[in-house]
Please model this.
Amino acid sequence: MKILITHSYFLRFDPKQWSLQQPYAPLGAMYAASVLRKINCDVNFHDTMFAEKADEVIEPLNKLKPDWFIIYDDGFNYLTKMCLTNMRDAAFEMIQLAKKNGCKVAVSSSDSTDHSEEYLNRVSDVVFLGEAEETIQELITLDKQGQNWQHIKGIASKVDKNVVCNARRLVIKNLDEIPFPAWDLIDVLQYKQRWLQSSGYFSINMGTTRGCPYKCNWCAKPIYGNRYNSRSVENVVEELSRLKTLYQFDHVWFCDDIFGLKQGWVKSFADLLEKEHLSFKFKIQSRVDLLLEDKQIADLARAGCSNVWVGAESGSQKILDAMDKGTQVEQIYEATRLLKKNGIQPAFFIQFGYPGETMQDIEQTIKMINDLLPEDIGVSVSYPLPSTKFYEQVKHELVNKSNWSDSDDLALMFKNTYQPEFYKQLHRYVHKNYRKHQALDTIKHLFKSPQKSNFITFKRAASYAWYVPATLLEKQKLNRLRHE
Model:
């Protein structure tokens, strides 16, 4: 059985990410390739990460003449979970090209799970529903044997021209049973070169867990749901050791929704890294309440954590409660203080435009950012994804647009306190204002400890002269839009 695997994330189709040139490997597709190798398939890989057009898939299709063409997107990366229309259109084009080539086509992604009928109408033969490593093995095994596979769990397909969604398969509990991703099938050197040129170091991605048990009402979980399963510390460190030997990475993004939720996991991880003399820097995503438990932050620092992104979301407790976030503003302040104390750079995901948000709530969020001055911020507007409580609340307003085209779209797609352009201008203002306060803070530190200065600190301090008038201008534009 000859199989061609790809994914539908095209870095070029996302201008913001293309300009950053910090590409992460398509782990989902690489996991799919490794499990298919396990059942003795002839697996080939077409990596669309750096492709210019969707029709570049024609060459490997013509050359390989695969039995199956499989689009398997990454269930770990937030960029693929956003279901961007640029990527959806590319997936549809590749599906049609593969069908013209005589292939059977299967798709696994957050978007196809949510819109299985649309993908099947675009002539896919099967859509995998949710976590698919076990499902894909069963389907291909049955097809190799010439048996019917349309009855298996975890798929949607057309039966007598009708879309039939079978029962979901239970999520995989023992993640150590899944073979490591097939890194050898991608051009790792190209990823490394782009990282070195853009950032001066090489970062890879890895998942140590799947799922999230928390219930923020805007967060979609079409692949792993609310279950939370973790790889063992030993399994993770074994893979890290192999990748370090093969590719000499400098940094890891652990792309878990929540890193180290299992009690004692982070401590054991730090212990084993020390025992194996394995040293590197890494960044994670976590929650402020989790970080305040036990010695979580101290153990993260000991393991090599340099950066923690937290879903701060808002400086208004009213908005956090409306989101069912389950965290307190005071916890954001305390976790930030402890991270900095332990030499870890905090970074905030911030979300504006949640229903019911007022100018007072917005000002509380801006104050929180200015008070705490995280190392970085990611500012967005509320984005309704299917199967969430938030989506159900606003779906009747999603008439002309229900998905962003790329990650920098930032369109508010439902009615709120202010017009959509206000929130785009708010994004610009918040960033300028944040950089201004960062620069001012740097100036204060330069006066206190001039011996610790370097080119970067001088450059940041000097930027204050530019950000003061720039922030004022953006604020004037924001006020104008606010009152229109």
